Every structure is written in C-alpha cells, then in structure tokens.
Automatic annotation (TrEMBL):
High-level lineage: Bacteria, Pseudomonadati, Pseudomonadota, Gammaproteobacteria, Vibrionales
Record's keyword terms, sorted: Oxidoreductase
Keyword hit for Transferase: no
Full protein name: NAD-dependent succinate-semialdehyde dehydrogenase
Domain Aldehyde dehydrogenase intervals: 17-476
Keyword Oxidoreductase: yes
Length: 483
C-alpha cells in the first residue's frame, strides 16, 4: 500500500478525527483470511447527534458558497482520489474482499461521480415563467435541502458514498455518512482526502459503528436532518421510510433487486454468455443489479448452457489481492450461510446442480461459483435476492410469457435482455417493469446515466443530470411590480 496514512482508526466529525464518546471500538476484519485490519470507533446515539449538529452548523456557511467554489473543491477531491487510486483499491479489497481489478475499477467509477457533480454544481438552473398577469413576475430558484444522511452498504464502499456525497455537496448540502459496518475504512480514507482537498470542517462527517439500528434511528429521525439517502435491503429501506416520515424528510432509496437476464433465440450467444458472466459473478454476485434469474429460450438453451457453464467453471476463486482472482470471499459467514441455505433448499425443491454448490476448500467465506438448472417460479429461490455467486436458470419459448415471468416480482431495479431484433428491443424495453434496462449489455452503471429502481426497489435517481435534483428544493418567487 503506497499511502498507509489513508488507513485510519478514528471517525471524522466536525473536521476532527475522534473516538466514540463511550470509548468503544469494533474490529474490522479481512474477509479473505479473518485477520484484523484495525479497530474503529463503535459509535452510538450521542456521537450521531454530534455529527448531525456539526453538519447543520457547517451548512449555514456551506450553503452560501458559490457553485463555482464548491465545484473547485470537488474537483480537487476528485484529483486526490485518482492520485491515490492504487492505495484505495488495495484498502477496498482488504476490507471488502473483491478482486483488486474490480476494486480499482470501483475507485475510478466512484471518482467519476465527484468529477461529474463538480461540473453539475454550476448547472443547477432555475426558471423564468411567463406571468399570468402584467403585475407579476414569476421565477423559480433551486436551493440545497439541508443536512443529508447518507447510509451506505458494504458491497461498494467507495462508489455508494460518492454517488450520494458528490451531488449533496454540489447542491450546497452537508452530509453525515454512516458506512457499512464491515467496510468503514474506505469511507474514512475518502474523508481524509476530502479534508486534504480543503472541504471545510463539518461539511462531511463519517460515523462508524457496529450498531446500525441505534445510529440509524438518530440519523433518520433527527429534526435537523432534511434528507436521507439509503442504499441497502428493501426491509431496512421500509423502516427508514417510516422513520423519516415523522418529520417529512426527502428520501432517496436504492433497495433490493431480483434482476432477470433474458436471452432470446436470435441473440449473439458469445456476447450473451459474457454479459451474463460479468453481470452475475462480479463482486461474487454481491451487487444489487446482478443477474438473479437467467431465462434462456428453448431453441438455444443447450448451446448457451454449454458455453456458460464452461466460462463459469474457469473462474478462479481466491484472495482478491492475488493475481488472477475472479471471485473473492463473501463479506461474512452470515452471507455464506444464506447462500448455502438457498441452494440447499432449491435442490430439495427440485432444482438440479450444474456446477458448484458448496463452500470452497479455500476457506469458510468462499463459496463456489454455482449454476442451478431446472428452476421454476414455484421455488423460493426464484423470489430471493441471492447476493452470492449463484445463477438460477429458467427456460422459456414465448416473448409475452417471459416478460410476465420477469415482471412477477415486487422488485424493479435492473433487467437485461439479448436480441438482434430491433422491434423486440422496443417492445421488451417498454414492457419490463424496471428502472434500468441493459440491452445486449451486462454492465450498465455510469455516472452520466440515472441509476435507480421502481416498485419496491426504491425511489429517486443517482448520477446523471437528474442526480442533483434529489438534494435541492425548488422555490417559487412571485414578484409584484408596478407597470
């Protein structure tokens, strides 16, 4: 690691590196080998309240800075992230487990949101509205919503922060970040780089904890918090929505998914196989937009499965810091137990094991890349967000039927399909009830396009020109004049 100064063991509140007020700490463990990396403050309600107050105090000044000034600071932060990309990627792999090449990609992807919103800060335009009578002039202006709580998950510990903090700071908001309990070190490193960039004290605060419910209760209910942005499971998202409702806060929710991946009989099979591989097994299947259900047309089923099974069997499992690793460990033993339990149950219900299906000999947090065939919608696994390296495969032979089956879920985050028929592209894209559609493409995320779901997969959008809107209020000005 080139810059060990970015491995920090204190939280960041009001521009200070602090311990928990009660003096408690929690171990952060490398999931690949079980070794303790360091200990960080195990913060509670009192710490969370201090962070909110610090953010509110900073907001009174930060909101008045010019968009150009905020843009310049964000740009400096972006430059420092890129400059320290190798260190950040190593840190990310060490605490989260994903292969280094994926971690480095995440660092650069995360940085792209800081760059994008540095530019968007200067484009938060209002409007002049033609008046209904000659004695009035109508205008709208956009203003920052206020203190923002950003509750982020462990699976993308840098990108999920920058997708929230970037637009918040660009809009003129201040932020309290609660990173995933298993992966706080990347958040602290990012805060250190923001400090180096000159972002004022209290504008970014990071609270670390092993007690997310206790901290979350403060961060989602506190009257000084005006916006909550959350990425995580749908059940927790529903709880946060209830907590935020008491003070009618703005919310952005990026929740669970159950992504279908449909391969029609006219698809380019080479591209479809590679698309399914990267969509499913990236980050060991621990992504909210990864393929859960693979629907293959009967006419090409055998050929597709032969190719797909081969490329999956070639994936190398191992420590993410070792060269050539494709699949790292799952985040913790609880995650492994969940995946193993779902596979076992599916087999009991009639699914067939085509590949994998057990914990790897490498260690108790490594699960083999797995393929289940003969899966039907009557099985419990068809309705679960797997969050592991397991593919469930379904057969179909009718377009309308597969669309109905793909939509038969409360989730609506991402969906994918492969076809060469241009008319089908439009029919299927418009019929799939999802916020993001990958058409002949397995990687869909970019800072320039809106990311978010429908139904129980959430509300609001991150990234793109729309991403800053969730952090601003529109104020209407009605000006009476003499004519």
């Amino acid at each position: 690691m080139k810059n060990v100064d970015l491995v920090l063991s204190k939280a960041y509140v009001d521009g200070l590196w602090v311990d928990a007020k009660q003096g408690k700490t929690v171990e952060i463990v490398n999931p690949a080998n079980g070794e303790v990396i360091t200990r960080v403050p195990d913060m509670g309600k009192e710490d969370a309240e201090a962070a909110v107050i610090a953010a509110d105090t900073a907001f009174q000044t930060w909101r008045k800075t010019t968009a150009k000034s905020r843009a310049q600071l964000l740009r400096k932060w972006f430059d420092l992230i890129v400059e320290n990309a190798e260190t950040l990627a190593t840190l990310l792999t060490t605490e989260q487990g994903k292969p280094y090449k994926e971690a480095y990609g995440e660092v650069m992807y995360g940085a792209s949101f800081i760059e994008w919103f540095a530019e968007e800060a200067k484009r938060a335009y209002g409007d002049h509205i033609p008046a209904a009578n000659p004695h009035n002039r109508y205008m709208t202006i956009k203003q920052p919503v206020g203190v923002v709580t950003a509750i982020t998950p462990w699976n993308f510990p840098i990108a999920m922060i920058t997708r929230k903090v970037g637009p918040a700071l660009a809009a003129g908001c201040t932020v309290v970040v609660k990173p995933g309990e298993d992966t706080p070190l990347c958040a602290l490193a990012m805060a250190a780089l923001a400090e180096q960039a000159g972002i004022p004290k209290g504008v970014i605060n990071v609270v670390t904890t092993s007690r997310p419910a206790e901290i979350g209760d403060v961060l989602c209910r506190h009257p000084l918090v005006r916006k909550v942005s959350f990425t995580g499971s749908t059940p927790v998202g529903k709880l946060i929505l209830r907590q935020a409702a008491d003070t009618v806060k703005k919310v952005s929710m990026e929740l669970g998914g159950n992504a279908p991946f449909i391969v029609f009989d006219d698809a380019d099979l080479d591209k479809a196989v590679q698309g399914a591989l990267i969509s499913k097994y990236r980050n060991a299947g621990q992504t909210c937009v990864c393929t859960n259900r693979l629907y293959i047309h009967d006419a090409i089923y055998d050929e597709f499965m032969a190719r797909f099974t081969q490329v999956v069997s070639d994936l190398k499992i191992g420590d993410g810091l070792e060269d050539g690793t494709d699949i790292g460990p799952l985040i913790n033993e609880k995650a492994v137990d969940k995946v193993a339990g779902l596979v076992e149950q599916a087999l009991e219900q009639g699914a067939q094991l085509a590949l994998g299906g057990q914990v790897s000999a490498l260690g108790k947090q490594f699960y083999e890349p797995t393929i289940l065939t003969n899966v039907s919608e009557s099985m419990d696994i068809a309705h679960q967000e797997l969050f592991g390296p397991v593919t469930t495969v379904f057969r179909f032979n009718d377009e309308a039927d597969v669309i109905r089956r793909a939509n038969d879920t409360p989730y609506g985050l991402a969906a994918y399909f492969y076809t060469r028929d241009h008319s089908r592209v439009w029919r299927v894209s418009e019929a799939l009830d999802y916020g993001i559609i990958g058409i002949n493409e397995g990687i869909i995320s970019t800072e320039v396009a809106p990311f978010g779901g429908v139904k129980e997969s959430g509300c609001g959008r991150e990234g793109s020109k729309y991403g800053i809107d969730d952090y601003m209020e529109i104020k209407y000005l009605c000006h009476g004049i003499d004519v």
